[in-house]
Design a protein that fits this description.
- The chain is α/β, with parallel strands linked by helices.
- Helix content is 36%, strand content 35%.
- It contains four helices and eight strands.
- The protein has a six-stranded mixed beta sheet, with helices on both faces. Strands 2-3 form a two-stranded antiparallel sheet.
- Strand 2 and strand 3 form a beta hairpin.
Amino acid sequence: MPAKDLFHNTVKTALEKDGWTIVNENLFIKIGNIEFYINLVADRILVAEKADQKIAVEVKSFIGVSVVTEFHTALGQFLNYRSALRKQQPARILYLAVSFDIYDDFFTSSFIQEVIEEHQVKLLIFEPNREEIVLWIN
């Protein structure tokens, strides 16, 4: 089992505050001989819509030496995890969770926005100190 990201528990708490039920803290997916672990799995029932939402969340702290290198790693993981998730749990939507500071400092640049749009990366932006979700980007 892989190590938890620095913000794993923070995002877990933020999701719970937002009305999500954590189903699993590590979703194991095996495709052939390749194994993946996605950080968090959550469900939420929307009574007004009578719908069940299912998500998986990959949490990234971006604490390495280079934010660009961290982004390359996060994007690659996101794309692979999304492809694997579509094979085994196609109803579950994958989100990349990043702190508001990283989002504001890096993810708002025009090139990164283009990359996010091109690859249809869904983002969950959280405030670590308050342990709250501040923005969902679909």
